[in-house]
């Protein structure tokens, strides 16, 4: 009878190595699936905490600035939050008022466009009869009536979604207050979960990731603001209805890299087409392309390079995965999460975490971002 040792020796070393890698990769895959399953079933908790973390990255520098100048920490948090709510409330009020003001004119323009399209269908090359057009309209109305039950259930699900949004917003607010007030103490407590041998390394990784997140949020905010101002100004000059609400949508959409600005820009083209015709739609499309080129070739290298440099494939795959897991919110949070992990993991696996953290800070200060393939000897020495 052959011994187990001789049986192992009869197996090719390559096969043994592949088998060793295979079971380890399976364990890692199972752990990843378990984490994604937990996240997907706890989205009502995970998403508000993630949004609160992003808002903390945006507001924490202002709170720290007031704290360093002698203001009470709680007072600084309250002042920054109230100022943010006042600014946001003022902008939303202005946008809604402009939407209400411009909606009647847009309705008139759309009605005129529909009448022109109907005339073209009758008198144009298609030479359709008015009876055929009226029959198509009646069929659409009948389809809506036949699906009234589904529409009603959709409205009920929308009401339930609104309830979840209100609950999530309150959770974001409470989490944001505690993160701004004592986020560093919370992180110090979380570090105690890890073994003492790696506790300091985990702390360095968390700080590096959060520092990268702060840079990413600032840069994205600036890029989105420039996109909104450029496109909104162009729409206003052309007299496109709802120019300000469309610019606001462009601002919000720019927080989802690659796809957000494209989708909201397409909506602006549709409004221009309905309101002003084909020529103005083409001009609007050219305006959006010009602003996107400005962002891609000037703003992104100068501003976003200071925060983080992520490969476009990682951005696309992250947005797709986030969208599958949590819809629009998942797509919004995907790239910031990648930016955080990009810096945190690099510090976590570095031979000298403190040196790696200093290296990333030097790259951020230099304006290049923590690029993946930058060799250590390219980092400028600190004075």
From TrEMBL:
Keyword tags: Cell membrane, Membrane, Transmembrane, Transmembrane helix, Transport
GO cellular component: a single term: plasma membrane
Chain positions covered by the region annotation Disordered: 358-383
Cross-referenced InterPro entries: AI-2E-like
Keyword Metal-binding: no
GO biological process: transmembrane transport
One protein family per Pfam: AI-2E_transport
Subcellular locations according to the entry: Cell membrane
Transmembrane segments: 21-39, 45-63, 75-96, 159-180, 216-240, 246-270, 277-294, 314-341
Keyword Cell inner membrane: no
Membrane topology: Multi-pass membrane protein
Family label: Belongs to the autoinducer-2 exporter (AI-2E) (TC 2.A.86) family.
Name used for this protein in its record: AI-2E family transporter
Organism per entry: Mycolicibacterium confluentis
